[in-house]
UniProtKB/TrEMBL annotation:
Alphabetical UniProt keywords: Cell cycle, Cell division, Cell shape, Cell wall biogenesis/degradation, Cytoplasm, Peptidoglycan synthesis, Pyruvate, Transferase
Biological process according to GO: cell division; cell wall organization; peptidoglycan biosynthetic process; regulation of cell shape; UDP-N-acetylgalactosamine biosynthetic process
Catalyzed chemical reaction(s): phosphoenolpyruvate + UDP-N-acetyl-alpha-D-glucosamine = UDP-N-acetyl-3-O-(1-carboxyvinyl)-alpha-D-glucosamine + phosphate
Active site: 125
Entry protein name: UDP-N-acetylglucosamine 1-carboxyvinyltransferase
Chief location: cytoplasm
Organism: Persephonella marina (strain DSM 14350 / EX-H1)
Similarity comment: family membership: Belongs to the EPSP synthase family. MurA subfamily.
Protein EC: 2.5.1.7
Gene: murA
Binding site for phosphoenolpyruvate: 30-31
Gene Ontology cellular component annotations, sorted alphabetically: cytoplasm
């Protein structure tokens, strides 16, 4: 893994309007790598993860695991070996948790295996308040004693966690993953109702089952877990990143389908493809997990709302909005998952986009073209939206604060340069 190469002073310069073409390969999914890495805490045996993307968030999770006492070795590019023999600390400190909300994923695993955990409260971020109350309520139902004090969650279960019936009032992805990890070593049976159905939840269940966990129903809204005494080591391959894949599919649609995409998880993007078809974008399979994107006539405006899997992902909302800014007619996007996920709108407006926001809905009136400007990457997917916008805009676009981008897109500037983009990384 590259020593952390992203720095808050880094920015991207893009000269837009170049025609992109070629083939790009999708990396392992950030949102699978992070829970799968946390799951290595659940055993004292060796776990090997393959197809691990080289991302800032993965680096942060690795630092967090190291802090706990995990030995982590990179066997070869993207292949990591994990072994937790001696505990160093049962604490996830603020310094690391503040860099990445997904650090909360270590709570369930540390608590169930070591009966105590202290994790800094992740707090809000630019896309919303993002509380973790549902994680904590569920762990309390499993017998944990929890207090939140001085910015830390203190959780203990001296006699071990016990299986329980968890009814999530709202679907939560990392909440489902946290409770699944807590339940695999708890006493008795845990039922998670209204569980998240995301492919990343299924991937985590697959990994845990290979380690000896007893789990049924992953991928449905009811997951049943029977606790076991002990889990063993395993070798597991991280699934491809459906959000990176969707991001490149949108880019390809904007470049007349001249970009083909390998390692593309068609099965995870069925609903997204239905939305694409309404716009006039068709995904064509040209090989196993290798696709091309075809535009069918003039692109058409749409109304889309974000919703939990299997529906349209909030993590592709900003990128789709960029596409719609140059689609003739009036489009509308409603963001149902996060209350503040339109931070990219003022930035897109700087590039000439015509967008109005009313509550959770953005009204987009297509313009002929965007024009380059200086913008800020306000969060991870907003950054991807800015990159797409910069590539189609006339002239030069400068994107500041791209450390957000490095949290979730492996080598994105390199991948784009290989497609012919004029994009350079500079530092202030
Ligand atoms: C590391 C990871 O996998 N991140 C993904 C995960 O985030 P994450 O798991 O944090 O998102 P959740 O599914 O938990 O959030 C969904 C909604 O529930 C709310 N909520 C959640 C937990 C809680 O205890 N209380 C509460 O009110 C959130 O504020 C949000 O409004 O799913 C999101 C929704 O698909 C994605 O955008 C993120 O990329
Ligand atoms: C919001 C995201 O990630 P996280 O939950 O890790 O902040 C994302 O991947 O778009």
């Amino acid at each position: 893994m590259v020593e952390i190469r992203s720095n808050t002073a880094d920015y991207l310069e893009i000269l837009g309007g170049e025609s992109l073409k070629g083939t790009v390969e999708i990396s392992g999914a950030k949102n699978s790598a992070l829970p799968d890495m946390a799951a290595t805490i659940l055993t004292d045996e060796t776990v090997v993860l393959e197809n691990v993307p080289d991302l800032l968030d993965v680096f942060t999770m690795r630092s967090l695991l190291n802090h706990i006492g995990m030995e982590v070795d990179e066997l070869r590019k993207g292949v990591f070996q994990f072994r937790l023999r001696d505990i160093n600390s049962l604490e996830a400190p603020y310094e690391l948790v503040s860099k990445m909300r997904a650090s909360i994923l270590v709570l369930g695993a540390v608590l169930t295996r070591f009966r105590y955990a202290k994790v800094a409260l992740p707090g809000g971020c630019s896309i919303g308040t993002r509380p973790v109350d549902l994680h904590l309520e569920a762990l309390k139902k499993m017998g944990a004693r929890i207090k939140v004090e001085h910015g830390y969650i203190y959780a203990e279960a001296p006699g071990g966690l016990e299986g329980a019936e968890i009814n999530f009032p709202k679907i939560t992805v990392t909440g489902t993953e946290n409770i699944m990890m807590a339940a695999v070593l708890a006493k008795g049976r845990t039922v998670i109702n209204n569980a998240a159905r995301e492919p990343e939840v299924v991937d985590l269940a697959d990994m845990l089952k290979k380690m000896g966990a007893d789990i049924e129903g992953e991928g449905t809204e009811r997951i049943v877990i029977n606790g076991v005494e002990k889990l063993s080591g395993t070798v597991h391959r991280i699934i491809p990143d459906r959000i990176e894949a969707g991001t490149f599919a949108i880019l390809s649609a904007l470049f007349d389908g001249n970009i083909t995409i390998k390692n593309y998880p068609v099965e995870y993007l069925e609903y997204v493809h239905r939305v694409f078809e309404r716009i006039g974008i068709k995904i064509i399979q040209i090989g196993e997990n290798h696709i091309a994107v075809k535009r069918e006539g003039r692109l058409k405006p749409v109304f889309v709302e974000t919703k939990e899997y299997p529906y349209f992902p909030t993590d592709l909302q900003a990128q789709l909005m960029t596409l719609l800014t140059v689609v003739d007619g009036n489009s509308k996007i409603t963001e149902n998952i996060f209350e503040n996920r339109f931070m990219h709108v003022p930035e897109l407006q700087r590039l000439g986009a015509k967008i109005k926001i009313d509550g959770r809905t953005a009204y987009i009136k297509g313009v002929r073209r965007l024009t380059g400007a200086e913008v800020r990457a306000t969060d991870l997917r907003a950054s991807a939206a800015m990159v797409i916008a910069g590539l189609i805009a006339e002239g030069k676009t400068v994107i500041y604060d791209i450390y957000h981008l490095d949290r979730g897109y492996e080598n994105i500037d390199q991948k784009l340069r290989m497609l012919g983009a004029r994009i350079t990384r500079e530092s202030l």
